[in-house]
Amino acid sequence: MKMSLVVRTTTKLIAPFLVTYGAYLTIYGYESPGGGFQAGVLFAVSVILLMTAYGYRRTKKHFPLRTVQLVESASALWVVGIALIGLAFGAFFLNFLRLYIPGGTVMTFNIGVALKVGTSFVLVFYVLSRWVDRD
Amino acid sequence: MGLIVLLAALPLLFAFLTALTVPLRLEKLAKYPFLAGAVAPWAVFLFEKAGNEVVGGWPRIGGIEVSLDVYNTPLVLGELILFTAVAVYSLDYFREVKAFVLLLLLHAGLLGAFISRDLFNFYIFMEIASVSSFALVGSSGKRKAVRAAYKYLMLSLLASYFFVFSIGVIYLKTGYLNLELISESVMPSKEINVAIAIAFASLLLKAGIFPLHVWLPDAHSLAPTPVSALLSGAVVKAPAYGMILIFSALPVSEGLSETAMVLAVASIFFGVAMALLQKDAKRLLAYHTVSQMGYVLLGIASMNFVGAAYYAMAHSLFKGGLFLSVGSLGKKSRKLGEFGYKNAPLMALSVLMLSLAIGGVSPFIGSYAKGLISSGLAGAWKWAVLAGSVGTLVSFTKLNYYLTKGEAPALPLSWKFASFALALAAFVGGLVLGAVPKVTDVYLLLAGILLFLLFKMAGVFELTLEKEDVKPGEVNTGAMLFALFLLLLLYLAEL
Questions:
Q1: Counting CB atoms within 10 angstroms of each CB, which of B134, B389, B456, B486 has the fewest?
Q2: pTM of the model
Q3: In this predicted structure, what is the pLDDT of residue B329?
Q4: How many CB pairs under 8 A join A and B?
């Protein structure tokens, strides 16, 4: 199912800005309002917008189901992994990266959360639209 | 050293690793991370000292506190033993990777709930466990099971939201979520009483105790067998641990703890009575969970938290074992009398051992836990425990009577092994904890068998109470019951 030309063009124009804003929220989330979850929702919204405008099949070509699944579980591993690596420096979830990266583990953690949340939402929509089986 | 938190983190890590096998097309290997995740917390449990710690070395006000203390060590141990047995069992039961991932998430959620000393984190982990159990109940895809899962989901989420609300009220009044800090700074007031009543009502629903048990028999009996074992053995223990947290940290009014005692006894007898009338083997066991959770509540209401924790551990061993053994015997038909253990001596031995354990007969762990519970009770309440034991023995005489009549289907070795391991754990646990044989046990057993014969002659077991399907309207009934009960508790909390 396709939307009208106006909708498709607007979506195409807006989606990159949404992704940029999501990236901004992820990276600066540790010192300004924002964070992993909000950024993840923005990432998901940009893909879901494409899905509503162009349909499930065309979106799936650019964001294949398997890749989404892969990123989803890998980013979850990333989050737990950061918490576990902290153990080597003394404590679970220790902020051991503070000296090397601005924000330390908080920012790296946010990146993981953003990817996890974004891909999870996309996956939910994929599964639902496959189930509804329209377009 | 500060590794207690790994109890919850390791199963989570392996859950994601197991999920990663799907997009990598390595589904065949999924059972290895699954088994690793099931077993990994043992290493932490065995080598970690008991104590409190705040994760990541943050200050206590903002940090997350976890602990392994005298209240939750039995719960964690019971969950670990049960989950290991269930993991071995499910290798030959589930085909899909999804089920393995959900089981590991359930594992992580339960362990996380049991170790947390912080109301909000307790809630989060309890929800992780609940959400994975909704999915697991419906995972067989049969219509009845999906409906039971839906009913469980609606009622349990209703209770969860009320629980979060009560946590919010407690946070508003004390300014803390950490249990230690709450108990230091709490002042008795109307708002705190209300919060305790709401939290108590919602945890009662999630633990499946008598007036709010409506979802439990359906969900626990219609779920796949390994899931039933986990649900009855461990998932209902998480809310029970929540009650321990609330009762130990907050000033519970006299009216509420009296009500809890009455509810506990009502739950014990109601569960037994309903179990006696069941014709479906797994439903019988599910009603027994209602009855057994009554004992746990009895321990909590009499402020005997150690007793409650040990009873919960004992229950996870024997009820998990019973579900695994009876569920695998009744693979084809679950109707009593149509299957049995006539040609399966090992299964017969495990079912008999587990039946004795649940009845509280002495070298088994059930008798030790019952002794602990009744040691904290005064006068007449002790008799309730004894009478409940007789009732339990009657219904398990019934179960074994029907099981001796039927033939067993061919079973995989791992299924027999898992049920027998749990039976052995119930036996060895009793010996290690020091349950001594008593003369009263013989009388109890005799009374149970005599009553069984009496009931059989009176034709009690012929009564039909059949229920074919879960109806959508039952969700409304359950929600209404919860609302009425909540109002009653709010009234009683002020007394």
A1: B456
A2: 0.90
A3: 85
A4: 51
